[in-house]
Design a protein that fits this description.
Largest sheet: 9 strands, mixed
Strand content: 15-25%
Order of helices and strands: EHEHEEHHEEHHEHEHEH
Helix content: 25-40%
CATH topology: Rossmann fold
Structural class: alpha/beta
Oligomer: single chain
Distance between the termini: 39 Å
Number of domains: 1
Strand order of the largest sheet: 4-1-5-6-3-7-2-8-9
CATH class: Alpha Beta
CATH architecture: 3-Layer(aba) Sandwich
Length: about 230
């Protein structure tokens, strides 16, 4: 089944260029980086918006991309699409109620496919830590150039660390002036404890200075490879 992305307000030039820079930096991380998990420290840091726009940016560059909405506790991604029938999602696959073929949806964006969350399960962490999720990622790596995974904030629940462990790399989205350095260090430590590869950070919600042309990208999103 094909789902249709609702018409969005066109992205400002500065923002569009920032995502291109983010995309380029990920490319320089190496061809072995195919499954990328995005998380944040707290809710409302813009993690889902950044991860989805990153997937759109890769698709626009000619890559074959699938976006997995793995925020099984509070998803916002399905609301971006026009859907006229019931959607089977990740939670139904992980619990054995649906096959992989039944949860992958084509979109009207060339190069972009989607896996939505499905119904909210009572045991998200247990489902994500099972063999079904790892098997899903291995299958998708064979079919797509990039697998972008949106996950819950790691400062709230452990789900992201579980997903990160099975991913090739993790990006931490941080909202400017909203997240303490102590919490960032704690989240970074959690990822390192799980032996996750941290690709870098995206500094989000930074006021742009339109007059400062030379550094416009740094004023909106900052990406630091590691």
């Amino acid at each position: 089944m094909k789902v249709v992305l609702k018409k969005n307000t066109p992205m400002e030039y500065q923002c569009s260029e920032a995502y291109k820079i983010l995309r380029t930096n990920i490319l320089f991380c190496g061809s072995q980086i195919k499954t990328i998990c995005l998380t944040s420290c707290l809710p409302n840091e813009g993690k889902s918006t950044v991860s989805f726009n990153m997937a759109l940016s890769f698709a626009a560059s000619g890559k074959k991309v699938i976006f997995i909405d793995a925020d099984l506790r509070r998803s916002t991604i399905l609301g971006k699409f026009i859907v006229d029938q019931e959607v089977l999602g990740l939670s139904q696959y992980l619990s054995g109620q649906a096959s992989i073929d039944h949860i992958i949806y084509d979109t009207n964006i060339e190069g972009l496919d989607m896996i939505f969350t499905g119904p909210i399960p009572p045991n998200p962490s247990e489902l994500l830590s099972g063999e079904n999720f790892n098997f899903l990622l291995q299958c998708l790596k064979e079919l797509y150039d990039y697998v972008i995974i949106d996950t819950p904030p790691l400062g709230s629940v452990i789900d992201s660390a579980i997903v990160s462990k099975n991913s090739d790399g993790t990006i931490l989205v941080i909202s400017s002036n909203d997240t303490s350095s102590k919490l960032m260090a704690k989240v970074k430590g959690q990822l390192e404890q799980m032996d996750c590869r941290i690709l870098g950070t995206v500094l989000n919600k930074v006021k742009s200075n339109r007059d400062y042309y030379g550094n416009y990208n740094k004023k909106y999103i900052k990406y630091a490879s590691k």
